[in-house]
Amino acid sequence: MARHYKKYAKRNKHKRRLKNKAAMQQSKLKFMLSQARKQVVNLSHRKLTDDEYLVLSRGLKFIPSPSVKRAKQDLLHDFDELARKMRCRYLYHGNLDEIHPFRVKSGHTPPLTCNTLENYLFNTKHELSSMQIRKFRNNLSLSQRSGISSLLNDESLIIKKADKSNNVVILDKVNYLLEGDKNTFIKFVCLYYYVYVITYFKK
Fold first, then answer.
1. Region annotation Disordered: residue ranges (predicted)?
2. What is the pLDDT of residue 22?
3. Do 53 and 33 meet the contact criterion of CB atoms below 8 Å apart?
4. Mean pLDDT of 135-143
5. Which of 34, 163, 188, 197 is 20 to 30 Å apart from 137, CA to CA?
6. Strand pairing partners for 90?
7. Radius of gyration from C-alpha coordinates of the chain
8. Do residues 180 and 69 lie in contact, with contact meaning Cβ atoms separated by under 8 Å?
């Protein structure tokens, strides 16, 4: 009987500990959300979610941890592009007198070149393929990453840093462009008036 009571008390203690931990996390999340709403100024028509507020409150210089799901494939793909450019530079160096700045990339795959360059490319690619990718601790939750994606895909918004504080301001692109046109028009009118006054007094 005593053993059963101790087991029951231990189980209840564990449940209370988990409940207190969840309550502390919930209160911490509410506090972070209240601080995030103070740091993010939403002047757009879009209603932001809690995750979007939390992401934007980290600042515009915040860097999410990279995804290592396709890191090695992307690395090898970039190296193949580098190898292609090195082969093109070796084969066609000095043949083109002037390269047009707006030329279209051909994507030409050149043939194999000298043994020295090919050995270097082969050994480097072998070392890259055998390299172990270190895993990073994820500094964002899945919902926050989806919030970043939704903000990036929304082309009707402009996200800027405030002029006189560290707050993040969200504006509608239409209103932002109209405000820029208005300021440009005011500057043009002031310049025109200044030139008119100078020419009038010179006469």
1. 1-20
2. 75
3. yes
4. 83
5. 34
6. none
7. 30
8. no
